[in-house]
Amino acid sequence: MKKYLLISLLCFFAQLGKTQIFEKITFQTSYCFGTCPVYHLELKADKSFKLHTEIVFLENSQTRELDSAKMGYFIGKLDKKMYEKFIVEFQRSDMCNLTFDGVKCCDGSLISLTVNYDGIQKELVSMFPPKQADALLDVLYEICQTSQMKRVNANYK
Fold first, then answer.
1. Which domains are seen in the chain, by residue range?
2. C-alpha–C-alpha distance, residues 69 and 153, integer Å
3. Of the candidates 125, 110, 106, the residue with the CA atom closest to the CA atom of residue 29
4. What DSSP string describes 5-47?
5. Cβ-defined contacts of 81-84 (< 8 Å, 24+)
6. Rounded Cα–Cα distance for residues 58 and 3 (Å)
7. Is the dihedral of CA 29, 30, 35, 37 positive or negative?
8. pLDDT tens digits along 51-83
9. Are residues 76 and 53 in contact, defined by beta-carbon separation less than 8 angstroms?
10. Whether the Cβ atoms of residue 151 and residue 72 lie closer than 8 Å to each other
11. Strand ranges (DSSP E) for the chain?
12. Which residues, at least 6 apart from 130, have a Cβ–Cβ distance to it below 8 Å?
């Protein structure tokens, strides 16, 4: 309860005179009974990212065939346009007031965000995130699926 009150107060004061300053976000998705991709993305304010694509299926695959060319460990740096798109959606998501319901049941991909901004770390988890997060999540998926990146070993080297 004390942690929630502290985060709420920090968010309130952060909103009084400045925008949310992005520091880092970790985006993770989980396996489902369908063709949900499994991503582990870490994006930093300097535009650099690390991505572990654990499971991804061939597009339009009815056989659930894995796309091994897109699986593995990757590093990269977002171009200016993609980073600006991310920042716009990050700001629009109203991180101080964004909450996930914590639902972890049923057949869906569990979405986890760990967000560092304004000196705050916030964790959000749900299989069914709110509509308020849709555009931000869409950009994070787009980063995972379309950004220029370099394949590296499991230690990101």
1. 2-152 (3.30.1560)
2. 14
3. 110
4. HHHHHHHHHHHHHS---EEEEEEE----SSS--EEEEEEETTS
5. 82/139, 82/142, 82/143, 82/147, 83/47
6. 43
7. positive
8. 999 999 988 767 789 999 999 999 999 999 999
9. no
10. yes
11. 22-28, 38-44, 48-55, 72-77, 111-117, 120-126, 150-152
12. 98, 99, 100, 101
3-state secondary structure of 90: helix
- Identify the DSSP state of 93: T
Flag the least confident range among 11-20, 61-70, 81-90: 11-20
Which residues have a Cβ under 8 Å from the Cβ of 33 and sit 6 or more positions away? 107
Say what the pTM is.
0.85
Nearest to 24 by CA among 113, 129, 99: 113
Closest to 51 in 3D by CA, of 34, 21, 73, 35: 73
- Residue in the structure block whose two tokens are 């977002």: 78
Maximum separation of any 2 CA atoms in the chain, in Å:
53
Q: Which two tokens stand for residue 66?
A: 């894995």
Give pLDDT tens digits for 128-146. Answer: 999 999 999 999 999 999 9
Instruction: Report strand pairing: 120-126 vs 111-117.
Output: antiparallel
